[in-house]
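Final report, closing paragraph on structural work. Over the funding period we assembled a curated collection of sequence-structure pairs, and we close with a single example.
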Amino acid sequence: MNPLYDPELYVGIDVNKTQLDIAIGMEGEFWQATNTSHGILATVKRLVVYQPRLVVVESTGGLEKPLVKALQVAQVPVAVIHPGRVRKFAGGIVFFAKTDKLDARLLAWFGFAARPHPKPQPNPACEGLSELVRRRNQIIDMLTAERNRRSTCPASQLQSLNDHIAWLTAERDHLTSEIEVTLSSQPEFHEKNVVLQSVKGVGTILSATLQSELPELGDYSHKQIAALVGVAPFNKDSGRSSGKRQIKGGRSGVRCTLYLATLSAIRYNPVIRSHYQQLIGRGKLPKVAIVACMHKLLIILNAMVRDMCLWQAPELSGTT
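Its predicted structure, as stored:
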């Protein structure tokens, strides 16, 4: 049998705080292991012998990370899937029962049916940059929340609030400086960083986010990379009716940072600004036009990283 169509070569692993539930396909072997270094090592050894086409796990707030890393080190292909996608798949196939064993079977079934892309193995430098970017995003979230509390903060607590805001601001700036140094000093990032930041509207944070959270940039087609980020519009047509196209899913962290960069590009990048103005002139809503510009900017960056070429603004009457 062609391994692509053999459901027993897809493995589902349900991960919780203390336990791993491993299912080989929909009808194959099932076993349990502790979610510890020893249990993970034993599981990976068994899977290396089995040689699955794909192992599927859900993202569970970081509980899955040690397992995913161990599988990647052992060269076992593994995909990390958002739980919402799996539950919608379960509803579509009328799979409503829920136990740890059934969840593992469901993940294997999802892998066979959807065939998601394996998660690329990040190098240590990429993991370090990713942690800096994520921590900066956490600080910004806290900073926004504290600033929003100013309007309702009691006078007796206002000084404490302002002190915390000042500390968070300094921490944000410190992390930004660390990210800048990492991008400029480490050879893994320097060349791509120069390419990415040659585009007006692309700054340090978008460059760092793309390199750490979107390692597929430059390797995937423009349709694949747009779908991966969540800026690819999906059709909603049926018969003679034509519905509004919408974007769904994708990597929200990358998409949020790309959104902010696109707002800057609409102001300062002549190609993106022209594209935005054309869409508005055709009656598109501003939010729709911004998403279309996000899509265009991402496609441009994907092509530039693929060819490792600096930005060259084309004639506005031409194409990019």
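Residues 123-185 form a domain with the Helix Hairpins fold (CATH 1.10.287). The beta strands are 10-15, 19-24, 30-34, 54-58, 78-81, 237-238, 241-242. We thank the funder for supporting this effort.
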